[in-house]
Amino acid sequence: MSDRPNSTGDRLDPAARAEPGGGADPVGDRPDSVGGHTYHLPEGLPAPAPSPDGLGAEFFAAARRHELVVQRCPSCGTWQWGPEYVCHHCLSFNLAYERVEPRGSIYSFERCWHPVHPALNEAVPYLVVLVELPQAGGVRMVGNLQGDPLQDVEIGAQVEAVFEDHEEADPPFTLVHWRVPSKGTVWPG
After folding, report:
1. Across the strands, what pairs with 104?
2. Which of 139, 145, 132 lies closest to 98 in space, CA to CA?
3. Residue 173 phi/psi, 5° resolution?
4. Domain coordinates of the chain in residue numbers?
5. Spatial distance between the Cα atoms of 53 and 59, rounded to a whole number of angstroms
6. Which of 32, 108, 133, 166 is deepest in the core (most CB within 10 A)?
7. Contact call for residues 79 and 137 (beta carbons, < 8 A)
8. Three-state secondary structure call for residue 140
9. Alpha-carbon distance 162 to 167, whole Å?
10. pLDDT for 75
């Protein structure tokens, strides 16, 4: 058993851990189900949405299409994340989103043992990763790492985006999570 308790004080059994990129994971891919769909995170969390002024709306619309987009300045070519109104490099207001490959590498991570929302009380631990996107000038995006929350996480490990649709929500939305690809996956480039 693990020496780290979950939020109820239960010990987590490392023997139940799945290999990264492997099949079903009884701890990391929790059976939180709504309308026959299984979700990585439990029910009850607030739905993500663009800010009221629309900043970030293109990102959320692209996620619904299972595409990953990042802001880029057409004036100077600088990539930036998160969404802003002004280019960090040349101060241009002329920003656009460009589609990038939904993969990157783990720059940093945190294994979270403290639930930051009541809906996460039974979902700890969970893994949050900072993913560096090489096709987008090395900008970094935060997300959850799917799979066993006790898995070994390697800085520099390749990850791919997972688009999790929530069709039953009003309005529907899509979350972007990350996972270590199956063994043997070869990426071009």
Report:
1. 159
2. 139
3. -145, 170
4. 51-179
5. 14
6. 133
7. yes
8. strand
9. 16
10. 97
